[in-house]
């Protein structure tokens, strides 16, 4: 079936090279008190992406995170990149006030409506339920309710769930909740697992059948590229090549090249050459960047 983008639906074969967890318009500054976390340099983003090697981006900014669907459409029109929009609610302390008063099914109906009807009074439909997240080392009560709303919407629509794990923690707890409610694990991406590089931890997660997000590539203050590459190789060697996906999770103006950051093409410009030198093959990179996102996103 087709995949929803900000410019309409496309066939999965049109995705090509895909980043699975990015932000092109996000504003967390009202909570963080840091204007750098208001990623609003739209023309700077367009200038970077015009000549990018990436073909499609899953934009996981959702309700309460500063999502602006018209801006995403504008970026897509100016760059030619397929932008796949998301729906749902993030994590504490970024949840809108009304979430605290709502039942998980009512929250789930909002998600379903954005998938089936459109976002913000437009006919642009969300495709991904995400990023829905948990705090470091705990799932807070409101986060549990949001996860339950994501499950409710997934079971109704079949659309994939993309999660946020704070520093890679609580992935197994997320998975246990999904299993309990019969979520289709082949439509789950557990995010930010490259922030906690632990061989056994990754294998246990991969054994559930979900996708493994190495989606903070370039954020080397947490784990160096070389460490992430060794953990990708280990998963490949243990038979989990088909579950690995990549992205960078750019969220700040200072992440852009023009402001001294790594930019959106860090994966192809820096990370992939390192991976190739370490023995990961071109065919495996193609699988991770092209084939795996196609299967994950197909509904």
Quick recap of the structure?
This protein is of the alpha/beta class.
What does it look like?
- The mean pLDDT is 97.
- With 299 residues, the protein is an alpha/beta fold.
- The chain is built from ten helices and 13 strands.
- It is globular.
- The chain has a six-stranded parallel β-sheet with strand order 8-9-10-11-12-13, sandwiched between helices.
- 37% of the residues lie in helices and 15% in strands.
- The protein has helices at residues 29-32, 42-49, 69-79, 104-116, 141-157, 171-180, 199-206, 225-237, 266-277, 282-297; strands at residues 3-5, 8-10, 18-22, 26-27, 38-39, 56-59, 82-84, 86-87, 128-134, 161-165, 188-190, 211-214, 244-246.
Please describe the topology of this protein.
Blueprint: E1 3-5, E2 8-10, E3 18-22, E4 26-27, H1 29-32, E5 38-39, H2 42-49, E6 56-59, H3 69-79, E7 82-84, E8 86-87, H4 104-116, E9 128-134, H5 141-157, E10 161-165, H6 171-180, E11 188-190, H7 199-206, E12 211-214, H8 225-237, E13 244-246, H9 266-277, H10 282-297
Parallel strand pairs: 3-6, 6-7, 8-9, 9-10, 10-11, 11-12, 12-13
Antiparallel strand pairs: 1-2, 4-5
